[in-house]
Design a protein that fits this description.
Layout: H1 5-16, E1 19-20, H2 21-28, H3 32-44, E2 48-53, E3 62-67, H4 69-72, H5 80-94, H6 96-117, H7 123-136, E4 141-145, E5 151-155, H8 161-166, H9 169-182, E6 185-190, E7 199-204
Antiparallel strand pairs: 1-3, 2-3, 4-5, 5-7, 6-7
Helix pairs in contact: 2-3, 5-6, 6-9
Length: about 200
């Protein structure tokens, strides 16, 4: 099904970060003015907002467009309220140890599933396989190799953000799973829960 221009803009800002109106127009194949009209309409709906970025020269600051918190919430978040509520109940009724057991069981299941699908001999291919899995799970993941030989795994969305906000153990579990599946060093360099636009992981031998 063909996406509407508004949905394509939201997806662009979600996956690529703040954009100039002209770049949005180029991406959609429309004029910069038409793109700005779409962005302004989305801003009136509370989904986008303009931000200023200082110019590299003496010119006027650039106006970029980015998603608001409401804009980010238009993407699925794994039944956020229900998930957060259930985790709160588990902790309150059964204690922190019960929640740790839930996280541990999830990590064991995820690790077994990922190991089945991430099996390439080369680290670059394993990172690519992991990115594909995470994208299918709703994380909007991408990967590439850096000039220094390390790799980046970037996730532009977190469908379990509500759960992770309630219990940081989910984030800790995920990074340990990545290390085990990839057989490599994995360090988180950007974190949505700390205010970043995305989660990013640097991977090296």
């Amino acid at each position: 099904m063909r996406q509407s221009p508004a949905n394509r803009i939201l997806l662009l800002l979600k996956t690529e970060g703040p954009q100039l109106g002209t770049d949005v127009g180029d991406h959609l194949g429309i004029t910069a003015e038409a793109a700005r009209q779409q962005l302004t309409k989305l801003a009136e709906e509370g989904l986008t907002e303009p931000v200023s970025e200082p110019s590299s020269g003496r010119g006027r600051p650039k106006q970029l467009w980015q998603l608001t918190a409401a804009g980010h919430q238009t993407f699925p978040d794994g039944h956020a309220e229900l998930t957060a509520g259930l985790l709160g109940i588990i902790t309150a009724e059964l204690g922190p140890g019960a929640l740790d057991a839930v996280i541990s069981a999830r990590e064991t299941e995820t690790l077994a599933r990922y190991r089945h699908d991430v099996s390439a001999p080369a680290l670059a291919d394993r990172v690519s396989e992991l990115a594909a899995i995470r994208s299918r799970e709703g994380y909007m993941a991408d990967s590439w190799q850096e000039e220094d030989g390390s790799f980046m795994l970037v996730e532009n969305h977190c469908p379990i953000c509500a759960a992770a906000a309630v219990c940081a153990g989910f984030c800790r579990s995920e990074i340990e799973t990545f290390r085990s599946v990839l057989g490599a060093k994995v360090e988180r360099s950007e974190h949505i829960l700390l205010g970043a636009r995305r989660c990013a992981y640097r991977i090296s031998v």
